[in-house]
Amino acid sequence: MRNTMRDTTLRSYVEAMVPLSTLLLACMPLLGMRPMVLVIAFWLLVLFSRAALDPSPVGRNAWRWAGFLALPLLIMLPDLFRAQDLHAGWLALERSASLALFPIGFLLLGAPASDRFREAMMDVFTLAALLLALGANGQLLVHGLNDPDTGGGFSHAYRISFAELTGLHPPYASYFFLAAALFQLERLLDKARRPWWRVIAIVLLVMAGLLIGSRMPLFAFATALAAMLLVHLPRRKALRYAAVVFVGVGLLAAIMPGARQRVVETFVTVQHHDSRQELNSVNIRAPIAHCTMELLEDHWLLGLGQANVQRALDQCYLQFKEPMLLNGSYGTHNQLMHWWLCFGLAGLVLYIVFFGALLNRAWQRRDAAHLGFLVLLLVCSSTENILARQWGVVLFACFNTMFIAPDGDLPAQRR
After folding, report:
1. What is the pLDDT of residues 355-387, one digit of tens each?
2. How many CA atoms lie within 13 Å of 133's alpha carbon, on the beta-carbon side?
3. In sequence order, what are the residues at sequence separation of 6 or more whose Cβ sits closer than 8 angstroms to the Cβ of residue 128?
């Protein structure tokens, strides 16, 4: 009798920890890299414990989706043995582990993913992103910007100060802010409660993104919102509202100092590179694109191997005599090109099939939140290797898998 009561208590405790540990994942904007790893490990431990205490069959559809979502990681596994340095190869593989861990958690172990729960996840993520934006900007307002005197102006000083304060690469902070804003716009379009709270959250998050001034995330945000409007509204009305959104974002970018300076850079052509001050975020992409295409000409079929790409790019950058390019962080800045250069034609096909299937699923299901999220990150992936950095891949894998999970044919008690 005592053992039965103990088992019941343990089951109740573990069952209560399942939604709490899952909601904790949505706090990722506030968590550093190592804490987030611990949170994911704890979440999986809770789910495995529940599965051990209360085994439940998993539907075939869940296995199929889990395998499909883990496909990029499955391609990276054999590619590991092409690495000249196995340690570097393992680190690249480890950064992408979330592509398999989240499908295991949501699809095979039955983490909650009902409509109501995913709304809670989006709200918690929004709150975490808001706290990040308010906390960081509040501290910068009190203590001032750390201007390294490079002549980059407000935008450069703000981005450096923000990165030093938060430990986040600024474009990835933009992804957090603007993804959260999209989630709240979807909640508004879905006529959720407390609309004014959501409007205020959207305004603050978009302003935070404008202060960072990353151009592509702002364009991606407008594009993603246009896609969501197409799901919710008749086509003509959606297109009219979408035009208003693009104009509105453009006007805001022209007003906010960080975004304005970064947009102006797009139209400035630097003729001479006599100092680092003349190298901006636009013209630095010319040598990146040149080296990416040069390497693809020789390795378009089989690729270089994921662990070898950065070393090859760094070697190519030597011809430009720009010290900034040689800090080991300037990859292809394009996810499609990155996978193509890593895995050859298999990487190109992987990108098209993987994201094509996800977009088709979101559109067919009329899932505006999933569609907007995918469009945001896909457009951003044209200028960043989103799935090659931990913050990008964790953000993508967590919410993408959660949006997919209701297709998994999991038992009703797991919902």
Report:
1. 999 999 999 999 999 999 999 999 999 999 999
2. 27
3. 26, 27, 28, 29, 30, 180
